[in-house]
């Protein structure tokens, strides 16, 4: 047999090595839903984090009840809290450069869940607006948007909320799958577990329908969505919320 040139031999050996698929950062960091025990830990009234950081509490609550992504939750403006057809809603809309909604389905009006209303979300927003003499275009949660550049602070969650999740033992490291997005995963699974039709879940979470049929049946009224959304509760959190 004729001898191969070293470079050619190396290339043939490398070409025949088994292909090893590298894990991308996205593959490693797949978002997980929070368990009941994890949520009980996060919202344990014995922690003083949310008492000292009420904005962070309401940001988490918004995501836990609407499935909003971090950007959508923390860039809400006072004008995004609306009442339409007698129903109090959160209007996720891309009317500012700081609002980076993922797709068209992400722009939506979500009725405010009765538990969120009972917790005093609307009262908090109204009192804060009055106290600060804010305008409708001001952002509810200060620090979410840079005042000079009007750009979204993409470190808001990692700097304020993630350290708390680590402190209480819910999050262990950057790639464990438990993060702010887990609130979105949690409510989506909760809604699915109640047997809610996908078309309603799409309206609430902001998912694009899978196929023409699902998309065509996703145009529900706010009253219909409100009734379906209120059909589930975080019963196990009621004692914590009461405190």
* Uncertain residue ranges: 20-28
Strand order of the largest sheet: 1-2-3
The N- and C-terminal alpha carbons lie at a distance of 83 Å
Residue-averaged pLDDT: 86
Q: Count of DSSP helices?
A: 15
Shape: globular
Largest sheet: 3 strands, antiparallel
- The percent range for strand residues is 5-15%
Structural class: mainly alpha
Q: What is the percent of helical residues?
A: 40-55%
Tell how many strands the DSSP assignment holds: 3
**Pattern of helices and strands:** HHHHHHEEEHHHHHHHHH
Radius of gyration: 22 Å
What would your notes on this structure say?
The chain starts with 5 loop residues before the first helix and ends with a helix. Strand 1 and strand 2 (87-92) form a beta hairpin. A three-stranded antiparallel β-sheet has the order 1-2-3. It has helices at 6-15, 25-28, 36-42, 49-52, 54-66, 70-74, 114-118, 121-132, 156-160, 162-167, 181-193, 198-206, 212-216, 222-229, 238-242; strands at residues 81-84, 87-92, 108-111. It has 15 helices and three strands.
């Amino acid at each position: 047999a004729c001898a191969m040139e070293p470079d050619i031999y190396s290339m043939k050996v490398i070409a025949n090595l088994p292909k090893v698929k590298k894990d991308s950062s996205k593959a490693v960091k797949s978002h997980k839903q929070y368990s009941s025990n994890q949520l009980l830990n996060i919202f344990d009234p014995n922690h003083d984090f949310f008492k000292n950081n009420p904005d962070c509490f309401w940001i988490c609550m918004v995501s836990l009840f609407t499935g909003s992504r971090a950007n959508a939750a923390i860039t809400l403006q006072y004008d995004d809290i609306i009442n339409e057809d007698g129903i109090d809603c959160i209007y996720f809309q891309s009317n500012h450069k700081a609002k980076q909604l993922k797709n068209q389905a992400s722009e939506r009006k979500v009725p405010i869940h009765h538990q969120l209303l009972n917790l005093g979300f609307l009262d908090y927003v109204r009192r804060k607006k009055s106290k600060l003499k804010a305008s409708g275009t001001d952002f509810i949660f200060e620090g979410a948007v840079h005042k000079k550049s009007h750009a979204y602070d993409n470190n808001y969650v990692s700097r304020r909320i993630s350290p708390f999740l680590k402190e209480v033992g819910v999050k262990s490291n950057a790639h464990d799958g438990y993060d702010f997005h887990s609130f979105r995963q949690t409510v989506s699974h909760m809604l699915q577990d109640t047997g809610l039709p996908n078309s309603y879940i799409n309206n609430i979470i902001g998912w694009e329908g899978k196929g023409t049929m699902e998309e065509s049946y996703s145009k529900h009224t706010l009253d219909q969505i409100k009734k379906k959304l209120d059909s589930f509760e975080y019963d196990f959190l009621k004692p914590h919320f009461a405190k």
